[in-house]
Design brief:
Blueprint lengths: L2 H24 L1 H7 L7 H7 L6 E5 L5 H8 L3 E6 L2 H14 L4 E4 L13 E7 L9 H11 E12 L6 E3 L5 E3 L10 E3 L3 E2 L7 E2 L3 E3 L4 H10 L2 E9 L11 E2 L5 E2 L11 E8 L2
Bound molecules: S-adenosylmethionine.
């Protein structure tokens, strides 16, 4: 691995360690879990389907809210994240909610050294791909941890989103390239947290951009078959200041609602042998 990528990953780990406790106190999903609910949206619930009794590996699980939601739906869950404080939060939440799940602190790229098992479902969702330096390695790791006939499920913000900045009139301005750049982009301006805008994060983060073909081809090369690929005009977080949260809980861009079908994409892939 390039030395610069190693440094970028270390910085990202520090960044997620910094904001994990902020998220434990501010994520709406924590509140829903504590009140006995399951804070998963209807799209994921419908597309992932019945999980009761199935083994599920959750990559980049952060503070475990989605992992514990699938556990509450009956899945046998293992969550993985490289942020120690995220894993500590996940374990605290697990104990408080009396739910069963195993949380492992590991870089996804080192997971084979920490986990010897295969799973019915490998799950990765909502704000994950930009932190990954190598999608081919990521995809081969998914194939490695899937049982034959199992499936991988991804819900992610559409890469097209990352091409734009919003101006004062909430119009989207084409600002960044779509295609993958060899080096990660560093974000080092103090900025409000996406979950708690009163918290200003002070650690830099490094992000890689990946195109749709980068994502799909990495998974196909690893031996998975594409079962479906969907795009939606709504998002799971306030990506742009002008986004409006509607009664259904999703964030929309009012000016282009229903016109840009690029905000979320989902893929589901099945390993055949
Ligand atoms: C946006 S969060 C995960 C999304 C999750 N749906 C959530 O919001 O709770 C991204 C997570 O990826 C983790 N992460 C980033 N790079 C990683 C890596 N190389 N290995 C393991 N975890 C990583 C971070 O620590 C962070 O917890």
């Amino acid at each position: 691995m390039k030395a610069a990528f190693k440094t970028a990953e270390k910085e990202n780990q520090r960044h997620w360690d910094e904001i994990a406790p902020v998220h434990l106190n501010s994520y709406q999903s924590v509140k829903i879990l504590k009140s006995g609910g399951v804070p998963l949206d209807e799209i994921q619930l419908g597309e992932v389907g019945e999980v009761a009794g199935k083994t599920l590996l959750h990559l980049q699980c952060h503070i475990g809210t989605d992992s514990l939601s699938w556990a509450r739906k009956g899945a046998i869950v293992t969550g993985v994240d490289f942020s120690e404080r995220s894993i500590n939060c996940a374990n605290r939440l697990k104990l408080e909610l009396s739910l069963d799940a195993m949380f492992i602190q590991s870089n996804v790229y080192d997971l084979r050294q920490h986990l010897d098992a295969t799973f019915d479902i490998v799950y990765n969702s909502q704000g994950v791909l930009c932190w990954l330096r190598d999608l081919d390695q990521w995809a081969s790791l998914i194939a490695h941890f899937l049982k034959p006939g199992g499936f991988f499920y991804l819900m992610e913000s559409h890469p097209v989103c990352d091409m734009f900045e919003e101006d004062e009139s909430h119009a989207l301005q084409l600002t960044y390239p779509y295609f993958h750049l060899p080096s990660p982009t560093c974000w080092d301006e103090p900025s409000p947290d996406y979950s708690d805008a009163t918290y200003i994060s002070h650690t830099p983060s490094y992000e890689w951009n990946w195109s749709i073909s980068d994502i799909i081809n990495a998974l196909l090369k690893a031996g998975l078959a594409l079962e479906f690929f969907n795009e939606y005009d709504r998002l799971f977080f306030k990506r742009f200041p002008g986004m409006v949260r509607e009664a259904d809980g999703w964030y929309y861009l009012p000016k282009v609602r229903g016109e840009i079908s690029v905000i979320i994409h989902l893929t589901r892939q099945e390993k055949l042998n």
